[in-house]
Amino acid sequence: MAFTFFFRDLPVLEHAVEYTLKLALGRLRIKVWDAGCALGQEPYTLAILFAERMGEMGFNTLYLDATDYDSENNFGDIVTAAEYKSEELQRIPPEIFGKYFEEVAGKPGYHKIIDRIRKRVFFKYNDLLGLQPVGSDYSLVVCKNVLLHFSYEQRIDVLKMYHRSLAPGGYFATENTQKIPREICHLFEQVTPDAQLFRKVGE
Fold first, then answer.
1. What is the distance between the alpha carbons of residues 22 and 24, in angstroms, rounded to a whole number?
2. Closest of 77, 51, 52, 83 to residue 64, by C-alpha
């Protein structure tokens, strides 16, 4: 589902970044997977939130895999270019907008994410129902506004895949309307009452 916007569901993303940084303190690499990234607004929001909390050198340890399945094959180009209509960016706080966006030369009415942020986000095509993760040892997996399109049984299978792909003690974040199915609730524990943010339990 392609519709979203920058800084959507901000509280859960802020919690996710805060807990992930505590977990990954001292690691050589912080791996994050944003599954169902659509046109890139969410992974770039995440990358900006990490950048705001990390120093220049620390931020270079972030590897954010942004994935989606797009039958028309254009999500990747849009995410990689990171260029958006200026009118779509009006929700972004002015201080963040001025710091992380710049005008697109020769393309009036468009702004793009600055290179420092864009270079930490790596787009990959992935069909979640294929149940093949794009990597492993993730400190954080984010999947918002995607699972609601799957059947109950499919959600269970996809969440098991996320559990396998997380590092020990890693975190899973989803939208507030989404719950962990009872059959696999033993695999995750909610870490804050203010957001659907869960810690991986067991191996």
1. 6
2. 51
pTM across the whole model: 0.95
156 CB-near residues (< 8 Å, 6+ apart): 181, 183, 184
> How do residues 128-176 score in pLDDT, each as one tens digit?
999 999 999 999 999 999 999 999 999 999 999 999 999 999 999 999 8
Domain residue spans of the chain: 10-78+119-200
Instruction: Look up the CATH architecture of domain 10-78+119-200.
Output: 3-Layer(aba) Sandwich (3.40)
Taking alpha carbons only, the member of 193, 131, 191 closest to residue 162 is 131
| The pairing of beta strand 197-200 with beta strand 166-173 | antiparallel
Q: Note the pLDDT tens digit of each residue in 42-92.
A: 999 999 999 999 988 899 999 999 999 876 667 889 999 999 999 999 889
Rounded CA Rg of the chain: 16
Q: Which residues lie closer than 8 Å to 105 by C-beta, 6 or more apart?
A: none
